[in-house]
Amino acid sequence: MTFPDGFLWGSATSAHQVEGGNTNNDWWDFEQNPASAARWSSGDGIDHFHRYADDFALLASLGHTAHRLSLEWSRIEPAPGQFSRAAADHYRRVLTALAETGMTAFVTLHHFTLPRWLASRGGWLAPDAVSLFARYCARVTAEFGDLMPYICTINEPQMIALHGYLEGYHPPGVTNPALWRRVGGVLLDAHLAAVPAIRAAGGLRIGLAVQLPLLAGSGSFVDVMRHEIVDRYLDGLTGVDGGDWLGVQYYRKQWVDASSPFFFAPPPQDVPVTQMGWAVHPDGLREMLHRAARVGLPLFVTENGIATTDDTERVAYLRSHVAAVRQAIAEGADVRGYLHLSAFDNFEWSEGYRPKFGLIAVDDDFTRRPKPSAYAFADIIQED
């Protein structure tokens, strides 16, 4: 079976991971705090802020027909209610350069980072966080709506809540189960508030990107965690105007353990894992695409990839997970694109620059070097 006509192929990045110099957000402050979980500073990133045009041209030359990137809220609105003309002009140049390659843009408006001014007021727990996010979304779509055919409001709301408010692994570094659940609900509300704010621009296709791990384990607590991490978001998009498409992000099979401080257990010893310690289980992507399909929206795989220094593992991972997507489509899932994470080796949040997710290596002098997996992915695209 071939993929459907018009199926989109590409890769993903996010602003803070690649741009460099994003010093006005909560992640920068988290990185500078020696007591935080962050291993080192994002620093200059891979200098994509200045090299975006060459980066887009390279990806297009590798056969990509789509690219996912994010806008940095703290650049666009560096102080509350103050919107930067220079940042708006910069991102218009970025999105124009992307359009000129012929790749379809998937633009994420919030990918993990909050402006420092909002973080200092409580971040997603601030009483006006939802309305402030909706205002930002409206401003961005008014500025760039002509260059953003696909808009993702929020990247992985479940992981923002889980990592930031239960595990303390991301900003604000809190470990509070009650706040974890509360923030998860706020983020869903923020997406639902952003949809009408974006619709005012007209003609844009709006989505939410959710990470859907395949949860495993015994006992009823697995169902509790499945509700908190998967179903509350899928259910929350059902029967309302939750957008026009849904992004599914899949990396791993994950074991649940109610006795663990953060409710997860490491994979069994005989299970292959990535640099991140994540269990490789390709069929989980097929299963989670079917689970997401119940929302009734077209699906895109907006992230899927492996952290490894062995690029032959990446090639095998790519082929096995693309095969899982193909099987899901054959079984009736409405999947319309696959975006690999990551386009480049880049800053991987609290893990710093150690994990290698990229199709393209980046040297210390910022030279880009496509790996064999980049060409293997090009072959997969060509085969389609």
UniProtKB/TrEMBL annotation:
One of its GO terms (molecular function) is beta-glucosidase activity. InterPro entries: GH, GH_1_N_CS, Glyco_hydro_1, Glyco_hydro_1_AS. SUPFAM superfamilies: (Trans)glycosidases. Keywords: Glycosidase, Hydrolase. Pfam families: Glyco_hydro_1 (PF00232). GO terms for cellular component: cytosol. The active site is at residue 303. GO terms for biological process: carbohydrate catabolic process. It comes from the Bacteria. Belongs to the glycosyl hydrolase 1 family. This is Beta-glucosidase. It comes from Actinoplanes lutulentus.
